[in-house]
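EI: anyone free to look at a 255-residue chain?
SC: sure, send it
EI:
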Amino acid sequence: MNRPVPRGAASVATDASHPARHCLSIAVLLAVVVTAMLAAPNPVRAQERVIISGGGDLDNSSDGYVGATVALPDSQIGQGLAVRGSVFGGTYDYRGGASNQRINARFGGGELDLIYQLTRGGFWLNGGIGGRYVDTTLSPRDPSNRRSGSQGEVALVVDGGYVSGPWRTDWYASYGTRLEDIQGRLSLTHALAGPWRGGLEAEAEGDPTYGEQRVGPIAAFAFSKSSEVQVSGGFSDGTVRGLGGYMRVGFYTGF
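SC: here you go
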């Protein structure tokens, strides 16, 4: 149910310049996520046809997304064909351009994928292909940034997981053919008291101009069999940013 947001800078990325603002953004996002989960209808049908998901990240950028997966006729969530759509946006800053000055970037876009879903017992796998559109605005302008302007690309995505007893693993990966951006996430968690599970996650992303890795603990709270909120945070390290921290929140609910 996780879907990271395309992001990154073609020059030297820096730590967020307004930590108080970013902390407030995360607090607001957490409040919105929890409110949405509490207000979401509890699924009553055995065969779900829609999954709503969303979330956000904070490290050298602030970004978020919201999306939905809708099963096509004669299919259901977890089995058969589905369409997955999402919109995303965010900001980051870096030093670059001819004068090596601070440049503020804003990006937004959307993605639409055709997904084939397979579930066997405690194992599930979703794979798909689609189109991704990203528009990035830079202030001041930086012609050397390969992400500047409006761009479209073919997107390849795969995600899934496996549950065995109290253990659960989840994975996600995506690749964009134009920007050659790659993202991947892997987590391993163990059932805790009640609706809680906790463990460790690792994430990596990059393109030909940069790379970043993250690792840290993750905690998840299930409101129902198909509704969950996730929070994770830890250390991040990048080829141009250096050592830092990150925080991620996410949710999904089915009906």
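EI: The longest helix spans residues 19-39.
SC: 👍
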